[in-house]
C-alpha cells in the first residue's frame, strides 16, 4: 500500500478506537506509519481524511447477514425489511461497532466533515434501496434515492440514535417491521 491507503487504514483504526473528536493527526500518523505532511498532500486535512475513513467504514458494513442469517425473503417484502433491519440492529450490538461514531457524526461541528458526509447521503440511501428492493445500485434512480433512500437513511439515523442512548430498549427488525405493518394497515383503511 502507498501512503494514501496507509493513512486511510490508520484513520479507520483511530476512529474506531477514539472517535472523531479525540483523534489527532499524530495519532493517524503513528497508526499508519506515515508522516504529517502526507495527510495534507493526500487528503487536504485531517478532517477530510477522517470523513473519508468514516465513509469507508460504512461502505465496508454488510447488512446481508451470514449463512442462515442472510437475506432470503423476496425483494420489497415486509419479511425482507425485517431481515435487513434485524441485521443492521445486530451490527449495532457488536463490540467495537462503528455505529457509536454515528451520533458523533450527527453532532460534529466541522463543516468540512459535515459537507463531505452530506454528499454521501444519497449514495447511502441508494445502497439501502438496492438491498431492500433487490435491485442493483446502478439501477436505483436519483429520484428513488432521494425519496425512498432518504426515508431509509432517516430510519437509520433514528436507529443509531436509539441504540446510542439506550441499547436495552432500542428497536430491532421485528419492532420496526411491526411499526411499518401498522402504517401500511392504517393507510389501506383510508
Please write out the topology.
Blueprint: H1 3-22, H2 25-32, H3 36-43, H4 46-60, H5 78-93, H6 100-107, H7 111-133, H8 142-165, H9 173-189
Helix pairs in contact: 1-2, 1-4, 1-6, 4-7, 5-9, 7-8
Descriptive terms for the model:
single chain, elongated, 190 residues, 73% helix, 9 helices
Describe the model:
- With 190 residues, the protein is an all-alpha fold.
- Helix 1 (3-22) packs across helix 4, helix 1 packs across helix 6 and helix 7 (111-133) crosses helix 8.
- The mean pLDDT is 88.
- Helix content is 73%, strand content 0%.
- The protein starts with a helix and ends with a helix.
Report the sheet-strand fraction.
Answer: under 5%
The overall strand count is 0
Whole-number mean pLDDT: 88
The ordered string of helix (H) and strand (E) elements is HHHHHHHHH
Radius of gyration: 18 Å
Share of helix among residues?
Answer: over 70%
Write a brief caption for the model:
The protein contains nine helices and no strands. The protein is mainly alpha-helical and 190 residues long.
Amino acid at each position: 500500500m502507498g501512503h494514501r491507503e496507509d493513512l486511510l487504514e490508520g484513520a479507520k483504526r483511530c476512529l474506531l478506537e477514539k472517535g472523531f473528536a479525540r483523534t489527532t493527526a499524530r495519532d493517524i500518523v503513528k497508526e499508519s506509519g506515515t508522516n504529517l505532511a502526507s495527510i495534507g498532500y493526500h487528503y487536504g486535512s485531517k478532517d477530510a481524511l477522517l470523513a473519508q475513513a468514516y465513509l469507508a467504514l460504512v461502505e465496508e458494513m454488510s447488512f446481508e447477514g451470514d449463512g442462515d442469517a442472510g437475506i432470503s425473503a423476496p425483494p420489497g417484502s415486509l419479511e425482507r425489511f425485517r431481515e435487513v433491519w434485524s441485521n443492521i440492529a445486530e451490527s449495532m450490538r457488536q463490540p467495537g461497532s462503528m455505529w457509536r461514531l454515528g451520533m458523533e457524526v450527527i453532532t460534529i461541528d466541522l463543516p468540512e466533515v459535515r459537507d463531505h458526509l452530506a454528499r454521501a447521503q444519497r449514495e447511502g440511501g441508494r445502497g439501502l434501496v438496492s438491498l431492500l428492493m433487490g435491485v442493483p445500485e446502478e439501477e436505483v434512480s436519483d429520484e428513488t434515492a432521494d425519496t425512498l433512500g432518504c426515508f431509509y437513511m432517516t430510519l437509520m439515523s433514528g436507529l443509531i440514535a436509539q441504540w446510542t442512548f439506550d441499547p436495552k430498549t432500542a428497536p430491532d427488525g421485528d419492532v420496526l417491521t411491526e411499526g411499518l405493518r401498522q402504517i401500511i394497515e392504517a393507510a389501506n383503511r383510508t
